[in-house]
Amino acid sequence: MPGSDRRGSAPPLRARARRGNGGTDVAAASPVPEISPSSLARDALGTLYLLLPLLGGAVLHGLCMRTGWLGFLTRPIDGGRSFRGAPLFGKSKTWRGPILVAAGAAAVWALQRNVLHRFEPLAALELVDYASLPGWWFGAVVGAAAELSELPNSFVKRQLGIEPGGTAWGLLAAVFYLWDQLDLLLGFWLAFAAVLPATPARIVTSVLIVGGIHPLLTLAGYLLGMRPTAR
Q: Helix, strand or coil for residue 12?
């Protein structure tokens, strides 16, 4: 597997006594995991740094939405197809999204891998040696996968009669709100899992980061005219 996971050396071994067949104590070694606040903080910062390509993709996509650039890409991904009388994804899900998010993510990933990696303070944030990973195209794959992982959400909403930009009610509204904030992480981790272990701690950390930052970025994008809605 490409890259080397920067999680430190193997945990120390602790001697554990067990009774042998002859009644004598036999020492058996078992790993003792070491989890310290400093290691958790470093992993959290590394996860945040890992997510930066998605920010680059979101900014590029938002700029094009505001200015109307590359309008020829605003063709619905579902091609106008429907299922059970409702659009598959709706007109709001166009090819411009995954293509531009892929391009923005590729640019940031190339910057991290080829330039920022040379600066030790930033290289120390890497959860895996970025220089050993694939180049810009890998960032494009990550960005596209993250954007396309929003499609199941849109499909379910259309089947429930929720229009693009619309909201549900009651408990369903809370479910879709959380889904709206976190759906991109599915594609993100599926892509990165090829080069970096998606540990439970990293997944939880990414959920907390995206769940906290994504609503603020969405609101900022709406106020700047880079998004059609504030959700």
A: coil
